[in-house]
Amino acid sequence: MAGTDAPARGRNIWIWFFGALGGILWGYDTGVISGALLYIPDDIPLSPLVQGMVVSGLLVGAMLGAGLSGRLADTLGRRLLIFAGGIVFIVGTLGSALAVNAELLVGFRFVMGIGVGIISVVVPMYLSELAPKEIRGRLTSLMQLLVTVGIFLAYVTDFAFADARAWRWMIGIGVIPAVVLAIGIYTQPESPRWLAGHKSGGEADAKKILVKLRGSEEAARSELAEIHESVRSEAENTEKVKLGALTRGRLRPIFVVGMLLVFFQNFVGINTIIYYAPTLLTNVGFGDKNAILANVGIGAVNMLMTIPGMFLIDKAGRRPLLRWGALGMCAAMILLTVTNLVGLTQGPVLLGLTLAGIIVYIASFSISWGPVQWVLLPELFPLRVRAGAVGICVTFNWLFNMIVALLFPSLLDIFGAGYNFLFFAIMTALAYLFATKLLPETKGRSLEEIERDLTGPAPATR
């Protein structure tokens, strides 16, 4: 057995490599704009509203890409759609880097967003379908970590090109991992689950792939039987879900909790830090390069604090993490509000307190709300509507993300940093109340128990 396991492990490493590359690329293209925004006005004039459009263009595209990916992944296959996502990334990245006006920049950022949306849906799906079942449950948190790695690398790239004010290179260098992903994914196997469940005559190919991945004929036969059972169960138990069906009857309280979860995930202010931290820091007196260097530190905290969050999800539970995370974010936002509203003159005290508040905020988010949402959402909904309901919530997640990203530069220009921090302090306090009063704990509990918590006992049948 050991002789067959070693080659199987080697093949798995390459699958994980290209999966990881997809997550990193998602994070890179999300985060790189934060530093580039400081230098784009050297070549392309940007009003606060247009700044918001440049950032949110990617998010509108991501909404579209994610919305189309589920059906396309079943029609085309996981591998072909990841390849298509890589091509879309390449086109969007090159177009954004070479844009000569705001319209082209926003348009190609939209194209990049379609790639982000595709990768955000299909790469986790692909990895979960090829991974051994013993580690499948860790993949959701792993993807969140990989996205933070991509954001950190984007911030480092921004700093590397800051002296040259080379925003085109900051964005354009993202084409390298996109090319590697697009080419490399075709050296990897197709998902056995897709072959067995969606491709006519694909069962023999699925078995061959499973033998290579698992290292033995017996393990491959056993997993193929599990795939057939899973496909049959999904076909019997999954309903097509429309938004109206989730807002009526016993599903409504569950859907309200799911929607509030994705609402607070965005309106506690995380995207103002991810996309606009250098802009915020220059607003309180940092120089451009020092703001980007500070942003590298923020990205490192974001990445490193996600790691304990991944392990605490199952040890501490979902709700305690969200509650403590909300308290930490609220304390940080209160510090930032007071610091920016008491009239401190620009100088070391204001700069130090602002940076400290942002770091406490990002650490509190990264260990809690960052990884927990993606684990918690599927646990809220009954199996029969889970896929459709989670898909709708994720679409609204992109929408809320886009609203914050679009409006924040204009609100910063009109009200200044202090009053924006005050708004987010209120939002984080409300997020704490939501996690305390409305959110059920899902750790170690059956879906039936969770559903009873939210909807009450099922009505008696006659």
UniProtKB/TrEMBL annotation:
The keyword Zinc does not apply. Gene3D superfamilies: MFS general substrate transporter like domains. PROSITE patterns: MFS (PS50850), SUGAR_TRANSPORT_1 (PS00216), SUGAR_TRANSPORT_2 (PS00217). Keywords: Membrane, Transmembrane, Transmembrane helix, Transport. It is found in: Cell membrane. Coiled coil: none annotated. Residues 15-443 form the Major facilitator superfamily (MFS) profile domain. GO terms for molecular function: transmembrane transporter activity. One of its GO terms (cellular component) is plasma membrane. Pfam families: Sugar_tr (PF00083). The chain crosses the membrane at residues 12-28, 48-68, 80-100, 106-127, 139-161, 167-186, 254-277, 292-312, 324-343, 349-377, 389-408, 414-435. Its main location: membrane. It is a multi-pass membrane protein. It comes from the Bacteria. SUPFAM superfamilies: MFS general substrate transporter. The keyword Repeat does not apply. NCBIfam families: SP (TIGR00879). Belongs to the major facilitator superfamily. Sugar transporter (TC 2.A.1.1) family. This is Sugar porter (SP) family MFS transporter. It comes from Pseudonocardia sediminis.
